[in-house]
Automatic annotation (TrEMBL), chain B:
Residues 7-243 form the ABC transporter domain. Probably part of an ABC transporter complex. Responsible for energy coupling to the transport system. Part of an ABC transporter complex. Responsible for energy coupling to the transport system. Belongs to the ABC transporter superfamily. This is ABC transporter ATP-binding protein. Keywords: ATP-binding, Cell membrane, Membrane, Nucleotide-binding, Translocase, Transport.
Length: 243, 281
């Protein structure tokens, strides 16, 4: 609960504070995950990068304007000589930068929670927050299936590689489609198996989760967290007062 | 011999949809109470289908299943009671591991019974200790080895303290150490008075472990009896392609004057002792 509250507070700050402080939050939350929780750089970077891909896809829409810059609006970069001139404005760049800082900060808070909290504890916290039981059950089953799917996909990939695979773009596409089909079949098979398993284990329409048990927070982490929050709030106040 | 039965199947017929052959063909067989029973048979002989009938997941299209002399009616309450008294451990443990750590998963079924938390914790602790899972109690399930997953699945079933535990190929894909740990666990469960039934096609394992054997072939019961009775005649087993366990095969290949009237030893140690005696005499 403590960790979830900390992450929620940081998430709130990530939305409201100055972009410079958002970058500070990003780095701070990253350090909790990578230095304290020992999450491998590679795994963290891969997930962070994958999530940022969505940002990258939306950047052109934020940056590029078509037509001629309005009076008083300077184009930072212009492609002229086209039937419809394109340009990028300083305001657009600033907006994209601010968005990047906010996304990174919010995402790092979310990753902190995701990487450092066991899934079952997260469910217990959500239950305390009165999340509907059906949503929790769905989350639980989806979480179990993530690993089952991963195992099945890994097995299929390995089998394909061992059999040499096929060359050429079209052949690869066909093979990928066949693999997706096989994965679907495999998943359905596992779903059928899991529902049988649930029945034999006395499932009566509701998965009863273990009750919430609060764990003590190490003092050094608590001190660091409170100090960090205080510094962030003070820095934001100073920035406001400075105008 | 007069025996008490945990479950009895009488003329059970079951046909899976879209298949030509019936999985169970008028199967009549009983599972004796308090014994270590092995159900032997090839893939597709009906072992898993029999187990799914035993816990009421599948219902016979013809024939009846009886528990404690009463024919199952498959009413909701009766099914819930059946599943509390008969536990099934699937061949693939992923099928029945639901929660994210072994400790939580073992307690899954107990929470549905309305037991209080202290009693649940105590029951889980003792079962996990028995199966050597205490150190793994908080490890994410997806990080466990296959052997550990199988033991966790067994612990989840054991925690419910059923009268009868059915295990579908419990030692398949296990390394020798995990197999030994699994069998030790099963012996401990049996010593506590639980009837244990294992489906397998490993003749050596069945011969070594079981004290009652049921042989299934093409959905029918071909033979049932003690290991000595079942493996006394190799012809019938060979006719259905099962053959003899290694120790029994070796025993019957010894000169008849040394083995006459004696059943083959059940373990390698017993066999060694007999051979030593023969060599010294």
């Amino acid at each position: 609960m403590w960790k979830s509250s900390f992450a929620a507070l940081m998430f709130l700050l990530s939305y409201t504070v100055h972009p410079v402080l958002q970058i500070v939050i990003t780095l701070w939350m990253m350090s909790w995950c990578i230095l304290h929780a020992k999450i491998p750089y590679r795994a963290y970077g891969l997930l962070f990068g994958t999530a940022l891909l969505f940002y990258c896809l939306s950047v052109p829409a934020l940056l590029v304007e078509f037509g001629h810059p309005a009076a008083g609006e300077a184009g930072v970069f212009r492609i002229s000589g086209q039937p419809l001139p394109m340009y990028i404005t300083a305001a657009g760049l600033e907006r994209a930068g601010e968005l990047l800082a906010r996304i990174s900060a919010c995402m790092s808070c979310f990753f902190f929670l995701m990487f450092t909290t066991p899934f079952s504890e997260l469910l217990q916290v959500l239950r305390r927050l009165r999340m509907p039981q059906i949503v929790l059950e769905l989350m639980l089953i989806m979480y179990r299936f993530l690993f089952l799917l991963n195992d099945a996909a890994h097995g299929l990939m390995l089998a394909r590689r061992l059999r040499g695979g096929r060359r050429g773009y079209k052949a690869r596409l066909r093979e990928t489609a066949a693999m997706a089909g096989a994965l679907f079949g495999n998943t359905m098979h596992r779903y059928y198996g899991l529902s049988q398993g649930l029945l034999t284990r006395g499932f009566t329409g509701e998965i009863i989760l273990p009750p919430y048990t609060a764990r003590p927070v190490p003092r050094r982490y608590a001190v660091r967290a409170y100090a960090g929050i205080a510094v962030l709030v003070l820095a934001q106040l100073w920035l406001w007062l400075r105008g | 011999m007069d025996m008490e039965y945990s479950l009895a199947f009488d003329g059970v017929v079951f046909h899976y949809p879209d298949t030509k052959e019936a999985a169970l063909r008028e199967l009549t067989v009983s599972i004796p109470k308090g014994r270590k029973t092995a159900v032997l048979g090839h893939n597709g002989s009906g072992k898993s289908t029999l187990f799914l009938h035993a816990v009421g997941i599948l219902r016979p299209q013809k024939g009846t299943v009886q528990q404690g002399g009463r024919t199952l009616s498959y009413a909701k309450k009766e099914l819930a009671a059946l599943r509390r008294s008969v536990g099934l451990v699937f061949q693939d443990p992923e099928q029945q591991l639901i929660l994210s750590t072994p400790l939580e998963d073992v307690s899954f079924g107990l929470r549905g019974t309305g037991m209080d938390e202290a009693a649940i914790a105590e029951r889980c602790r003792s079962v996990m200790e028995l199966l050597n899972l205490t150190e793994l109690s908080d490890k994410p399930v997806h990080q466990l080895s296959l052997g550990q997953k199988k033991r966790t699945a067994l612990a989840g079933v054991m925690a419910m303290e059923p009268e009868l535990i059915l295990l579908d190929e419990p030692t398949s894909y296990l390394d020798p150490l995990s197999e030994t740990q699994m069998l030790q666990g099963l012996d401990l469960i049996h010593e506590k008075g639980t009837t244990v039934v294992m489906a397998t096609h490993d003749m050596n394992l069945a011969y070594r472990w079981a004290d009652w054997i049921i042989v299934l072939d093409q959905g029918r019961c071909r033979a049932e009896g003690t290991p000595e009775e079942i493996f006394a005649g190799a012809e019938e087993l060979q006719a259905i392609g099962l053959g003899l366990p290694l120790l029994a095969d070796l025993w019957y290949s010894l000169p008849a004057r040394h083995t006459a009237g004696q059943p083959p030893p059940r373990t390698a140690e017993d066999f060694k002792a007999v051979l030593t005696r023969l060599l010294n005499s």
